[in-house]
Design goal:
Bound molecules: flavin mononucleotide, manganese (II) ion
Radius of gyration: 23 Å
Structural class: alpha+beta
Shape: globular
Number of strands: 24
Strand content: 25-35%
Distance between the termini: 46 Å
Number of helices: 13
Largest sheet: 10 strands, antiparallel
């Protein structure tokens, strides 16, 4: 299946597939769009292209990721597990034996070689260039999502920075609250790579924000990759085609050439402003907190640029499928650390970091605890507040089954482990922000019903 190379091809593909509805009526990006999208997402409805957002000449695309089918269309795959399988091929690359394996190995190596971003001379994203006083974020139909929000927020950005020490690129999806015509807040949270780049910078850190990308590259900005891994390389690999980049106009940062809109600018150490409140997936308004100010030095655009947006809030919302894509695509990588893991599920209702259900092939006493600690030591999975470990015969995606085995087989005193460690930046439950208990439970090793329990109890 062909993968869309930019947002326009993606919109055309969605339209061909009957997955997009154009809204010709004028709709206000302030609250109204949220109301419509909230209902559409919950009904499993289509992507929406608001052609006339009030106060802007730019159409607004939303709910592009809102169903499993669209997420699969984005990756050009039948199932998200097929995307994971391609990644597993690379991670598990072995010296090939026999001609067929060699040919397959070469194909895999070529797909890695082709994933590196490619620099081009001209990019459609710079058909229109606004600098200095021409920069006005008010031109964009930035949504005010919820009534208590502190203002309009850019919600689907790909924020590009470089590590001041190594030059390595990072792309992260960090919301931007519009503070003025040429400034936003930069909401990179405590554990995020963009923030690490910022803290490593002596003074100024240049950044570029790409808006309106092909869906795989947009997804990659949300992917929890290790800091030294370039999200654009992963995007190139997943698309089977390199991401094209062009030099920024006012910053020394390369930007996706086919982006609809790019905000160029910088943040500066010590230059921060209150950010929030913002209605987030915690179900609450995240309180006002200080975040760096992003100074926009240029807005570059395509002609007739489309502005992309997303609404987050109490789940389920559109980001559920971005999270599910990560869950599936990262399974092979998680297995590199803990090969005994058969499968895992991060429930949407758990906002991805509140609960993980993991099935394992248990071989020795304490094995489930080994796996819990592995997850608590692994990238952003380390922020997981609750972990349930089950035997391999339990289907982790069948919550009724998990509840049945967990309920039936757990002796809480014996099987629940309370630990302490880092928590998600936005978690409002702990007494101290960022740090609190996490718990894991391991139902007593259970066998499928056909095996009657006999003999000695197994230890755990
Ligand atoms: C719709 C959406 C909005 C997000 N907003 C933020 C945000 O405002 N701040 C943040 O730190 N992470 C946010 N995230 C999560 C990050 O994008 C994610 O953790 C990603 O791994 C960050 O990139 P990094 O690992 O390179 O830091 C958001 C994710 C999604 C899907
Ligand atoms: Mn990163």
């Amino acid at each position: 299946m062909a993968v869309a190379r930019d947002l326009r091809e993606w919109i055309a593909l969605l339209e061909r597939e009957g997955e997009l509805v154009r809204v010709a009526a004028e709709v206000d990006p302030k609250l109204e769009i949220t109301e419509i999208v909230d209902r559409t997402v919950k009904a499993g409805g289509p992507a929406l292209l608001f052609e006339r957002p009030r106060g802007s000449t730019h159409p607004l695309l939303i709910n592009q990721f809102g169903t499993e089918r669209r997420m699969c269309l984005a990756f050009g795959a039948e199932r998200l597990d097929d995307v994971a399988a391609r990644l597993a091929e690379v991670l598990e690359l072995q010296p090939p034996e026999g001609l067929a394996a060699k040919v397959r190995g070469l194909r895999t190596l070529k797909s890695i070689a082709d994933s590196r971003p490619r620099t081009v001379r001209h990019g459609a994203c710079q058909e229109v260039v606004l600098t200095g006083d021409e920069v006005d974020l008010g031109r964009l139909p930035v949504q005010t999502c919820w009534p208590g929000d502190g203002g309009p927020f850019v919600t689907l950005p790909a924020v590009i920075t470089h590590d001041p020490r190594t030059g390595g690129r990072n792309v992260g999806m960090y919301r931007l609250q519009v503070l003025g015509p040429r400034t936003t807040a930069m909401h990179w949270q405590l554990h995020k790579d963009g923030r690490a780049d910022y803290l490593l910078a002596d003074g100024r850190l240049e950044a570029a924000v790409a808006l309106g990308l092909d869906p795989v590259t947009t997804y990659s900005a949300s992917a929890p990759l290790p800091k030294h891994v370039d999200e654009l390389m992963v995007a190139g690999f997943l698309r089977g085609e390199p991401v094209e980049l062009v030099k920024g106009v006012t910053v020394d940062v390369e930007v996706p050439a086919r982006a609809e809109i790019v905000l160029e600018g910088y943040v500066e150490r010590g230059d921060e402003a209150p950010e929030g409140p913002f209605g987030d997936h915690t179900g609450f308004y995240t309180p006002v907190e200080s975040f760096p100010v992003f100074h926009v030095t240029a807005i570059t655009m395509r002609r007739d640029a489309v502005y992309p947006s997303i609404v987050v809030g109490k789940p389920p919302q559109e980001d559920a499928w971005l999270g599910k894509a990560t869950e599936r695509i990262f399974l092979p990588a998680v297995r590199m650390t803990a090969p005994e893991i058969v499968d895992y599920d991060l429930p949407v209702a758990g906002a991805f970091h509140n609960l993980a259900i993991v099935s394992i092939r248990k071989r020795f006493p304490g094995h489930a605890r080994k796996v819990m600690h592995a997850l608590w030591g692994l990238g952003l999975l380390s922020l997981t507040k609750g972990i349930v470990v089950v035997d391999e015969h339990v289907d982790v995606h069948d919550y009724a089954q998990v509840l049945f085995y967990a309920g039936a087989n757990v002796d809480p005193k014996r099987d629940v482990l309370l630990s302490e460690g880092p928590l998600d930046h936005l978690d409002h439950a702990p007494t101290l922000q960022f740090f609190a208990a996490r718990s894991a439970s391991t139902p007593r090793p259970s066998r499928p019903p056909r095996a009657p329990a006999t003999g000695r109890r197994r230890s755990r």
